[in-house]
Design the sequence.
C-alpha cells in the first residue's frame, strides 16, 4: 500500500444559483478590479489515502465524493490531483 | 402517540419539539443520535439546529448517524417522520426526501416570522389544517433555499407533494416558493419554518399547533 495525497474539488453545479460567488464578484468589482465577469465559490478537500496504486486511490476518492463529499443535487466534484504523498 | 425527538450533537430545537409534542398530548422521549432503536416510537421528529456544526453541508454528517438506520426503516414502513429545518436538510441529504437546501439567495441568515400556505392536508402533519390555511411560523436558517432539478420540481407539483408554500415573501429564494414537501408515501414531511416554535400566542403565533395535534395513527 502506498500513501497518496488526493485533492478533491467540489463546485456548485452550473446553472444553480451561487450567491457566494456573486457576492465575491460584486465585492471585487466594488474594490475597483475591472473585468470580473463571474466568480464561483466551492471547496477543496485534501485527503491522505492508503491505496495500492493511483488508480485505486482515484477510484476510492470518487466513491467518497459520491457518498459524502459532494451533494449530487447541487454540486459537481473533480479529483484535481492524485499523487504519492 | 409515542413521539421520539432525535438529538444530534448541535440540535438546538429539540426541547421546543419535545414541548410542542407533549403539549399536544403525546408521550415524548428524546433519542440520542448514537442509538440504534427508536424505543417503539409511533412518530419521529428530527429537530432543528446545527448538527455536527453544519460541517461540509447542513445535515451531511448527521445522515450517517447510527440512529438514521432505524429512522429510515421507520419511514420505509410508512410511519410518520417530520424533519424541521436542520431535520429537513438531513432528510434531503439522506435521500428520504428529494432535492436539497442551499445557501439562502441573499446570503444572510434569516430569522423572522414568515407565512406559509398549507397546500396539502393528506399527511400526518398537515391533517389538522384546511387546504389554503395560512400558517405563521418563524424561520431561522442560513441554508434554506429549496432546490431540485426541473423534472423533480414538476413531479412534486404533479404528485401534490409540495405541502407548504411561502406566501407574501420568500425568505430564502426557494424554488417555486417551496417551504415544505412530502415523500411519495406521504408519511415523511420536511419543512424549513419552525411550527414547534409557534405553539403559543406568547411566542408570536400558535399556528403550528395542528402539526402536532393532528398526528394520525400510522397506517396499518
Sequence:
Amino acid at each position: 500500500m502506498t500513501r497518496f495525497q488526493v485533492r478533491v474539488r467540489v463546485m456548485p453545479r452550473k446553472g444553480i444559483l451561487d450567491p457566494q460567488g456573486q457576492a465575491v464578484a460584486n465585492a471585487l468589482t466594488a474594490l475597483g478590479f475591472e473585468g470580473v465577469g463571474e466568480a464561483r465559490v466551492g471547496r477543496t478537500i485534501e485527503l491522505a489515502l492508503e491505496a495500492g496504486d493511483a488508480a485505486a486511490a482515484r477510484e476510492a476518492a470518487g466513491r467518497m465524493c459520491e457518498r459524502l463529499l459532494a451533494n449530487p443535487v447541487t454540486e459537481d466534484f473533480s479529483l484535481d490531483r492524485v499523487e504519492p504523498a | 402517540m409515542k413521539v421520539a425527538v432525535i438529538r444530534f450533537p448541535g440540535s438546538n430545537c429539540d426541547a421546543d419539539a419535545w414541548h410542542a409534542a407533549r403539549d399536544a398530548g403525546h408521550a415524548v422521549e428524546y433519542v440520542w443520535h448514537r442509538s440504534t432503536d427508536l424505543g417503539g416510537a409511533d412518530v419521529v421528529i428530527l429537530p432543528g439546529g446545527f448538527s455536527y456544526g453544519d460541517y461540509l453541508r447542513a445535515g451531511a454528517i448527521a445522515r450517517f448517524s447510527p440512529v438514521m438506520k432505524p429512522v429510515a426503516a421507520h419511514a420505509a414502513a410508512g410511519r410518520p417522520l417530520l424533519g424541521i429545518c436542520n431535520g429537513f436538510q438531513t432528510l434531503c441529504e439522506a435521500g428520504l426526501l428529494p432535492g436539497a437546501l442551499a445557501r439562502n439567495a441573499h446570503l444572510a441568515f434569516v430569522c423572522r416570522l414568515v407565512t406559509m400556505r398549507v397546500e396539502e392536508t393528506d399527511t400526518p402533519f398537515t391533517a389538522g389544517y384546511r387546504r389554503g390555511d395560512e400558517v405563521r411560523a418563524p424561520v431561522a436558517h442560513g441554508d434554506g433555499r429549496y432546490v431540485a432539478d426541473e423534472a423533480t420540481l414538476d413531479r412534486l407539483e404533479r404528485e401534490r407533494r409540495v405541502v407548504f408554500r411561502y406566501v407574501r415573501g420568500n425568505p430564502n429564494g426557494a424554488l417555486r416558493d417551496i417551504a415544505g414537501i412530502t415523500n411519495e408515501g406521504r408519511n415523511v414531511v420536511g419543512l424549513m419554518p419552525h411550527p414547534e416554535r409557534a405553539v403559543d400566542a406568547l411566542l408570536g403565533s400558535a399556528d403550528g399547533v395542528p402539526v402536532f395535534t393532528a398526528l394520525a395513527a400510522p397506517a396499518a
